[in-house]
Amino acid sequence: MERADAARNRAAVPAAAARLFAEHGVDVVPMDQAATAAGVGKGTPFRRFGDRSGPAVALLDARERELQDGILHGRRRSVRAGRRRSAQPRSSRRT
User: Three-state SS for 85?
Assistant: First the structure.
């Protein structure tokens, strides 16, 4: 069973990386900056994710799982906003 702090770190690093990627771009965010933004030690992202691409892969994986879940269960979700959208096709929505 994963420790509570380890689970928090596993979620915090990609979330912080996502904010930094949006602000600065994926190719310029160093791991120590992601660690600082996540509130974890500088070694944590390397141990958990390996290298700089690790948090990006984790973000892509999470968003892909969310999309797949929506497809499989008939829900449409805005991946960027994280908000539920109507399952009605656009042509039948009222404006």
Answer: strand
